[in-house]
Amino acid sequence: QEPEEKKIALELLETEQAYVSRLYLLDQVFYTELMKEAKTRKTVPEEVVKMIFSNISSIYQFHAKFFLPELQERMEDWSCNPRIGDVIQKLAPFLKMYGEYVKNFDKALELLTAWSERSPPFQELISDIQKREVCANLTLQHHMLEPVQRIPRYELLLQEYVRKLPPTSPDREGAEKALEMIFMVAKHSNAAIAEMERLQNLWVVYERLGLEDDIVDPSNELIKEGPVQKISTRNSSTSEKYLFLFNNMLLYCVPKVIQVGAEFQVHLRIDVDSMKVRVLKDSQLPHTFLVSGKQRTLELQARSGEEMDAWIK
């Protein structure tokens, strides 16, 4: 009867062997053959192939030449040296290179779909490779997902391993340290995804605003957006406007009637710095509030009390 922790260490080794053959397929088969096709027959730009596969070659080399051999050696030597914590500690810093692959993943899938439609020979070569036995009836997209799922898998296996270790195990300290490092890397890769999503969402907002130079800034953060009524003090009539509140500025916009390109026209920007906001008590005009900044003061009306409170907050 093998001890529980050894079973988990063996499972780590077996899944690593399977993972390396999947990486081999991605790097040495798909990437290499599609790159050759791009160079010789020009059915797809070389740049596109590089962008689809991101840094898969580095990931493959690292696992095939370094991590898997170290793990194999350790498992053969288990009876004299029953530990894997130190091997995983060596591995952990290199897992940061997954950040790039994970961050690029959605874009890679988009490019793959777009070029498969645009270039039949490109699609044909992918289909041919997918028919090979080594692909196990799975698509390229399916194989590309493997590296994205690998770090969470390490985390789960290692958590299980630490749980099963006897209190006196020589690997206790090493394995706990390794788990902590893997956890940090997973956080790093999740942060990379979150940052990518934030930038994508920000870019969509900038496009709706017509990509005005002085507004496009990657460090901005959109806090709230939505329609409001602008109250005209002269004849107390109202007109439909739209606000975008960023961490550093409030954009006061007019919806465009003909939406070619942009959806809104920016009429005014007020710096958040030294901006003041207060409720206006007006029985004729409920849910109104005043925004005053360096640039000017606006009297606005929200659709409801909740909406007004949300803007003020």
From TrEMBL:
The keyword Cell wall biogenesis/degradation does not apply. InterPro entries: DBL_dom_sf (IPR035899), DH_dom (IPR000219), FYVE_RhoGEF_PH (IPR051092), PH-like_dom_sf (IPR011993), PH_domain (IPR001849), SOS1_NGEF_PH (IPR055251). This is FGD2 protein. Residues 4-192 form the DH domain. It comes from Eubucco bourcierii. GO terms for biological process: cytoskeleton organization; filopodium assembly. It holds the Pfam family SOS1_NGEF_PH. GO terms for cellular component: cytoplasm; cytoskeleton.
